[in-house]
Amino acid sequence: MIRVYGVLRIALPVLGFLLGAVKVFGHPVEVATFERFGVPDWFRVAFGVLQAGFGFIILFEKLQLAGIVGSIGLLVVAAGLMANSGQVLLAIVPCTGIATIMLFAAARKRALEAKSADRKSP
Hints:
There is one protein chain. This protein is mainly alpha-helical. It has helices spanning about 1-25, 30-35, 40-55, 65-85, 90-120. It has one domain. It is elongated, with a radius of gyration of 16 Å.
């Protein structure tokens, strides 16, 4: 589980940053997706900034919990928007992201417990 934590601790910020940047810079697929949701363009940009930001703070152990909670919140919003706009099957994508972040959270907990046990042992 500690290896999972190590891998996801790097992979999640990279994914969060890249996927957020794609939204911020207005990739045509993202623009079309958010248009289907019926939200204003600034919402796509704000969503991308938050996605990149939450991904970035996952790099820092003391801020990881905030990044985990924020990222899951964004993915719940994304799944809801997709389901509400008739893209129910596509909502599997953010749900997979939620599952991955929850795996990261569990691995993080294990890693922190192991770290704490190492400090307590003589």
